[in-house]
## 1
Amino acid sequence: MSAREPTVLHVGGASPYDVVVGRELLDRLPGVLGDGPQRVALVHPVGLGQLAHLARTAMSAYEVHLLPVPDGEAAKTAAVAADCWEALGRLGFTRSDAVVALGGGATTDLGGFVAATWLRGVRVVHVPTSLLAMVDAAVGGKTGIDTGAGKNLVGAFHEPAGVLCDVALLDSLPRAELVAGLGEVVKCGFIADPVILDLVEGTDPDTITPDSDVLRELVERAIQVKIDVVVDDLKESGRREVLNYGHTMAHAIERASDYQVRHGEAVAIGSVFVAELARVAGVLDDATAERHRAAFERVGLPTRWYGASYEELRAAMAVDKKARGSTLRFVVLEGIGVPRVLADPPEEMLRAAYDVMTGGGAG
């Protein structure tokens, strides 16, 4: 499967675009950008300088300017965004020019936000270089930066002109980063596509490698789950909320750990937390709650974390984007692929789920 032709997954809606999954896709960049732009700002982490030069070569028909930004979450600040805006101003970028975001999820979040806000919106193409970015950040049009109060609290919805998921770029990805990306993949299995869970549970995890057929299928299935949800709810006013499964606690963990816990790892832990919350609320059966822990652990993800007190995490969850007023909202499951919202659960239920998450409970 890994040697076959690229797969094209179409995202419909008001601003349709394609997500292409395959290998060696950089040469497709001009086809996605089109003949409108004269200048292209290539936003990339400083650690991906060599790859950025390869991408610039693939875009030789344009006037390409490299905009290196810090690696990882350090790129997602107002200061870095402002530096990018100043650069676009100096270069004379017009509304017909374009941004290409080449990097992990932090880079596509930042690059998309810069594109969304420059002249109130210019064309952006995402080339995600991590598994997490391919199945999550690069698809769906959500962009953003972080503040001291929390992650992704400042942002905009700005759909890309296209997304190129070149799985060959995962060949050099550290194993820990690949495993972290599987957190979002397994999550998609629980909320919408049980075949993902069957693949994970029926495959030797050591064989889930960037050049494997199974990883290619997992990537395509996870992206399709996201497409199916976002095409009907770009701005998270309805069904899209299900994609936040496990994220309320995950974002609290990331903030409490000063982002030392990777996003996919935090999603795994947060999903176990919310599965236990659903179990103690009488919404989810014991076997499905336990299946969460088993599935995430099978691919090498953590399912317990005790790096912060309940009070600290509870306070962080209160400022999460998914809270409404003083009401905490959690996406929970009634069964595999049957999500619903649990609003304002009692404190004793939250504490019980926290106890299981930290290893102090009976789960």
## 2
Amino acid sequence: MATLRRLLDTPLPTGMTVAVIGISLALPAALYVLADNLRAMAGGWDQTAAISLFLYDETQDADANRVAADLRGWPEIAQVQMITREKALDEFRALGGFEEALEQLTSNPLPVVLAIYPRNEHSPPAQLETLQTKLLELPEVDFARMDTLWLQRFQAILELIQTGVLLLGGLLGMGVLLIVGNTIRLEILNRRIEIEIMELVGATAAFIRRPFLYAGAWYGLLGGLTAWLLVTLAILLLQGPVSRLASLYRSDFPLSGLGLAAIGIILIGSILLGLIGSWIAVNRHLRGTEPD
């Protein structure tokens, strides 16, 4: 606690150092939260039909039901959902913004659609393309659309963001080491005379090193707490605009923040970075404090 009181006796330098550490740690933490929320959003899209079959306009509901019943017996298919013309038009009307155009229609131009949900073992892209080619051979099918391609691209973007989080976290972690190391080096220079006196009375290197290590740990802990507060504040500020955007799509998407595990990793990691940075600074500069 004596080390903490010493840091609090100089609030401006301490606050500036803690703020820089906090911002450095908050950047990769914010990217992690972004990727985690996008992953949660994509989790609800995994249930999207892999293939949509658009039947010819002259296909009646009875014929579409017969085709759907036949497809449910295929070993590659887990589920088939039929979307009638009326249901498709109702969903289109529910989107809003097309009321005037829909009023000009004299008949329903939308076709019957069969949403195909394959079994897990037939979900890879290559097997989906094979299944789509097989489905296109049905006489009632006009054309087909694979609905998972965009989801696969989205998953690839998520993997890219995750890799970016690791790279950015590593680079900014090295930055935190430099910040703490430089701060501890200045502290050593300011206490040079005190250290020389301690060495004259027989203080060991471990005894002299200990308060600087404590200071590095406190810098790391305070910086980690600052990063957590910054990310939490950003989530609170963004929740309103995100909720309004989701409401336009008739949805509700609450943002999730840092979980307990992520907070623990940030705090423990920041303390370790502070300890390592201070250890390097002390070992490098402590020899220069020996009396002549």
